[in-house]
Amino acid sequence: MSGRWRTFHTMISYVTGDATHPHGQGPKVICHVCNDIGGWGKGFVLALSRRWPQPEADYRAWHRSGNDFQLGAIRLVQVEPELWVANMIGQHGIRPTKDGPPIRYDALDRCLSTLGDEALSLHASVHMPRIGAGLAGGSWEQIEPLILKQLTERGIAVTVYDLP
To answer: Where is the Macro domain (predicted)?
Structure first.
């Protein structure tokens, strides 16, 4: 991509809305952070499960299989012809410990790097709530630079949705 166009994508678009109804044209990936213990039932996953059964079913089957189900891993689940959900394992357990909140920034960074590869191959934009900053207990000030580095600086359009 030429420098002129590349600079156009170095920012994250922040909008008010529901990330399960992503804006814009073309292929899209909705990403979110999952835990590494197989728990699905609070937060953004509830909105996902209300729209599509596949992401939860795939996550639970992936957890049962044990196949690469670990921090830093992701799986893309197609839910519509040009729409995927990325289940990203970036959270250790579900409760804060003496070591801090469940978010694992290094694992989230690896997830986002892989997501960037997938989004580029699909020619897809990426859509998300404020991943890792809800139940995972992370700081958006630490998460946003990871998104910039792994997605927008690679020319991937990213939209972050805040509920009204």
So the answer is: 1-164
**Domain residues for 31?**
13-162
The domain spanning residue 65 has which CATH number? 3.40.220.10
- Specify the DSSP class assigned to residue 65: H
Q: Which two tokens stand for residue 84?
A: 């995927």
Q: Is 103 helix (H, G, I), strand (E, B) or coil?
A: strand
Is the model's pLDDT at 1 over the cut of 50? no
Written as one letter, the residue type at 116 is: G
Domains held by the chain: number: 1
Q: Output the pTM of the full model.
A: 0.93
- For residue 77, being part of any structural domain is answered with yes
pLDDT tens column, 126-145: 999 999 999 899 999 999 99
